[in-house]
Amino acid sequence: MKLKFVYLAAAACFSLAACDPNAINIVNSYDDPTRTETTRIGGSLALLPGPQRKVDIAVYAYDDQTGQQKPEDNFSSFSKAVTQGGQAILIDVLKDVSGGQWFNVVERGGLQNLLTERQLIDQSNATYRGTTRSVLPPLRFAGIILEGGIVNYDSNVKTGGLGARYLGIGMSTKYRQDIVTVALRTVSVNSGEVLTSVTTEKTVYSTLVDAGVFRFVGVDELLEIEAGTTANEPVGLAVRQAMELAVYSLIVEGAATGVWNFGDRSEGRRHIQAYRSGGVVYARKGAADVEG
């Protein structure tokens, strides 16, 4: 009888470990660094039709405006719930649109460093070459400024689970859903008018699966075995996906209202029509599919 329970417990633990190949020897394993994963919406942005004319754009800041701390069940955490590098992610997204054909992104987050370096060059030229004026070309300026930020992070929007136990042997699964929301708008430098404004959100999923055995196998003998695995969707990747959808929405809305135009008008109309019907033109394996 004792062996029977041991076998059942081992089978439960091994079946759980089989669901996650990384659960075994994970302490001694390591991964090589990789590039950030390309998301579906990111792939669609990369294949988006180019503009009629490239747009000069600036991003001064794209901050975490949520004020949320990382949610923890058992203790207070001072870690932020979302990334503090929103500006860097947004610039990277903008540079990837249509293979870099859509936007000339000018540096504004590190503007003081740029101005300091230019001043050093001018001072060095004046001291050692006798120049009386700057030999550097003027800085490129932007016609449009991107504003916005990560505006909301709702944790535990939906939680739940399912489990069963028989004779002290059982398995259970739990899940949690959080939602991150970003806002993005384009502002005309000439007039200060807000040209387009969008808000997008992304659900962040977390799951927990565990199995365990709790059984008295004798008067003074207790058998207890536990195993489990947790999967948490990276919040940083979720923020990037929300930004990518926001950039896609801004481009399509701007084309629909005449802020800018697609170089290929017919392809642009297809994106506008899909967007107005609540969908996104996703690119897959050389073809394009429309999904809501």
Short description:
With 292 residues, the protein is an alpha/beta fold. The chain has helices at residues 2-19, 40-46, 86-96, 111-128, 235-257, 265-276; strands spanning 55-59, 63-64, 103-106, 144-166, 169-188, 194-218, 221-232, 280-284, 287-291. The chain is built from 6 helices and 9 strands, in the order ααββαβαββββααββ.
Your description of this structure?
This protein has helices spanning about 1-20, 40-45, 85-95, 110-130, 235-255, 265-275, and strands spanning about 55-60, 65, 105, 145-165, 170-190, 195-220, 220-230, 280-285, 285-290. By secondary structure, the chain is of the alpha/beta class. It has a single domain (about 1-30, about 40-110, about 145-290), classed as Rossmann fold (3-Layer(aba) Sandwich). The strands form two sheets. Strands 1, 2, 3, 4, 5, 6 and 7 form a seven-stranded mixed β-sheet that branches. The termini are far apart. About 20% of the residues are buried. Mean pLDDT is about 75; it is low at about 5-10 and about 15-20.
